[in-house]
Amino acid sequence: MFKGICRETHNGNMVTKILKIPKFFTCIRNFSSENVLVEVNNKTNTAILRLSRPPVNGLNLEVLNEFESLLSQLEQQKVNGVIITSNKEGILTGGIDIAELQTIDQRRLKKYWTTFRDTFLKLYNTPLLTVAVINGHSPAGGCLFSTACDYRVMTRNYNIGGNETQLGLVAPIWFMDRVADLIGHRQAELAFTQGKLFSTDEAHKLGLIDEIVENTAEGLSKAQIIINSFANVPKKAREISKRFTRQQFLDKMIRDTDDDIRHFVNHIGSNETQKIIEQYMQKLKSKRF
Ligand SMILES: CCCCCCCCCCCC/C=C/CC(=O)SCCNC(=O)CCNC(=O)[C@H](O)C(C)(C)COP(=O)(O)OP(=O)(O)OC[C@H]1O[C@@H](n2cnc3c(N)ncnc32)[C@H](O)[C@@H]1OP(=O)(O)O
After folding, report:
1. Predicted TM-score (pTM) of this structure
2. End-to-end CA distance of the chain
3. Considering only CA atoms, which of 160, 242, 243 is closest in space to residue 207?
4. Which residue in 11, 89, 154, 180 has a CA-CA distance of 20 to 30 Å to 214?
5. pLDDT in tens, 116-142
6. Ligand 1 contact via 195 beta carbon (within 6 Å)
7. 112 torsion bin: left (phi>0), alpha (psi -120 to 50), beta (else)
8. Does the structure's ipTM exceed the value 0.90?
């Protein structure tokens, strides 16, 4: 393991961070943003994108915008693959930053949900090869974003899944569809009606993740191996095949955009749901869940 230096601006001040970088990521181009660190290995032309927003990499509007914009830059740079992981072992992301849901302002809710959907679509639809290294808990929005990747490896002893129902919320139908694509309709039905979080082993057995690894370093190496395994596959044919296999889901999601946004705004913006969210936040803070 090498140590790399990353300089970035934080609240207007330049800060220097020491990053642990596995051996194969020694020569890096760096264009990190506030909440998402990016390293591109000049040798392999592979990027690692690390969520880095303490305490739990909550997906607020800024993180989503930065993530989408960085992915666009990586597409322009035509990298060979993108590895998505967390800068903090133990938590990939706590999902949506619940503060974003604590409002009845319909304009704000609409803006948030549009951005959330667009970011998911960007990741789902990118021609780049994407591998999620799930190196920590990955509830709700975290699980959703990892399902957008081409391949998922996960470290042991963490949880992943759609727990919305447990919180008294309803997950979006396209999250349910995506999970059903991976684990089958019956298992998805059981999982979402229960708001089930799966252990790494359970997720692997069901097909929600593809492989289990012991730690982040092994996850990154494994992800690089997966990316390398595509080296001899004709690029254009792979990209079109990816688009074709994802087209049906994509068409449905885009066709249902207006309904989905309206449901979200009505569901989250209702006083009843606001009470539920407030109670959940209190539980979370007092660790009574
Ligand atoms: C009727 C018709 C309906 C039609 C419906 C239509 C469609 C509607 C769509 C609705 C969409 C709703 C979708 C929701 C998706 C989501 O992503 S919701 C978020 C779900 N996330 C969670 O439940 C995760 C909760 N967090 C945890 O489980 C744990 O925090 C953790 C495992 C991630 C980490 O644990 P640990 O390391 O022990 O840290 P903590 O001490 O628990 O947390 C530290 C700190 O962070 C705060 N926090 C944690 N998670 C979040 C979060 N998601 N958002 C904001 N803040 C969070 C936590 O409170 C602690 O704060 P303090 O230090 O106490 O201040």
Report:
1. 0.91
2. 37
3. 160
4. 180
5. 999 999 999 999 999 999 999 999 999
6. no
7. alpha
8. yes
Phi, psi of 95 (to 5 degrees): 85, -155
CA 207 to ligand 1 center in whole angstroms: 24
Residue 280 identity (one-letter amino acid): Y
Q: Residue 83 pairs with which residues in a beta bridge?
A: 48, 131
**Measured distance CA(110)–CA(72) in Å, rounded:** 23
Query: With a 6 A CB cut-off, is 51 part of the ligand 1 pocket?
Result: no
Whether ligand 1 lies within 6 angstroms of the CB of 219 is answered as no
- pLDDT: which is higher, 25 or 138: 138
Distance CA 174, CA 170 (A): 12
How much of the chain is in helix, strand and coil states, percent to nearest 5?
50, 25, 30
pLDDT surpasses 80 at 8: no
Query: Does residue 277 have its Cβ closer than 6 Å to ligand 1?
Result: no
**All domains in the chain, ordered by first residue:** 3-288 (3.90.226.10)
Ligand 1 site, residue 58, Cβ cutoff 6 A: yes
Q: Which residue has a Cα nearest atom 11 of ligand 1? A: 171
The tokens for 187 are 């298992």
